[in-house]
Amino acid sequence: MSTRHKAVKATLDKGYASEWNDDHIADFTERVSWILTLCEQALTTQWDLFSAGTGNDPAAALTAGHSSVVFNTGGTTANTSGMSKELAGTPGNITSADDLPILSFALDIDTVHNAGNVVEVGFMDQGVAPFTANQDGAYFRVNNNILYAVTGEGAAETTTDLGAFNQYGHYRIEFYSYGGTTRVRFYVDDMVNAAATHSTNLPDSDITPVFAIQSQNNVDSTMRLDGVGLQVIRNQ
């Protein structure tokens, strides 16, 4: 959707009905911001919760003196615990690469096994289960104790090795347009200098924020999400 304005005419200049009709379009602000609260409402009001095996659905809790969402898989390989942002109270995608979304969050990756794929957090296609190869999205992955920046378009993916992950970190995933081409910047703690920038295998499906952990080698995986913020462009 584009934003158009009525024509400005000098005195005695003719005006045309079509110039006025073009202005009958709502003018949204350039960027809309959401702070996705994790403590004011039940998680199920805004999030679709999921788990597999003996994994537990994420739950809000007061931990270390502040509210957060706790994920716990239980100690069986391939158990999962996760949640995805809902569309109007129903599981579904809420944005796309065209909206140039920005997702920021604070995450405590408490306990994970040092082998295998154990964490995927960021933008993903809600219709595809986390930990599926080459899924549409732009997200962070922890695999074999290494943090990766990942973009995927359903058939292939681009990954950047960001080194060993810290237990607690602040993360940002930012879609932006440069020279008419959409790219994705990934930030970890340093919000000025990107840890990675991807311009290939960007998602061509709609996406939504997803946070998920998985157990490996019969070791319980746990993490804590302290806060989430989302911005999108709404005047296209």
Short description:
With 236 residues, the protein is mainly beta. The protein is built from two helices and 15 strands. Strands 1, 3, 4, 6, 11, 12, 13 and 15 form an eight-stranded antiparallel sheet that branches. A seven-stranded antiparallel sheet has the order 2-5-14-7-8-9-10.
What would you note in describing this structure?
The structure is a single chain. The protein is mostly beta strands. It has a single domain, classed as Jelly Rolls (Sandwich). It has helices at residues 17-21, 43-46; strands at 31-36, 47-52, 56-63, 66-72, 80-85, 102-111, 117-124, 137-143, 146-152, 157-164, 168-178, 181-188, 196-198, 208-214, 222-233. The longest helix is centred in the N-terminal third of the chain and has 5 residues, at 17-21. The radius of gyration is 20 Å and the shape is globular. The model has no long low-confidence stretch (mean pLDDT 89).
Describe the SSE topology.
Elements: H1 17-21, E1 31-36, H2 43-46, E2 47-52, E3 56-63, E4 66-72, E5 80-85, E6 102-111, E7 117-124, E8 137-143, E9 146-152, E10 157-164, E11 168-178, E12 181-188, E13 196-198, E14 208-214, E15 222-233
Antiparallel strand pairs: 1-15, 2-5, 3-4, 4-15, 5-14, 6-11, 6-15, 7-8, 7-14, 8-9, 9-10, 11-12, 12-13
Task: Give structural attributes.
single chain; 236 residues; mainly beta; 8-stranded antiparallel sheet; 2 helices; 15 strands; 48% strand
Using the alpha-carbon principal axes, give the shape.
globular
- SS elements, strand count: 15
Number of helices: 2
What's the CATH topology name? Jelly Rolls
Low-pLDDT stretches are: none
Biggest beta-sheet profile: 8 strands, antiparallel
Provide the number of structural domains.
Answer: 1
- Mean of all residue-level pLDDT scores: 89
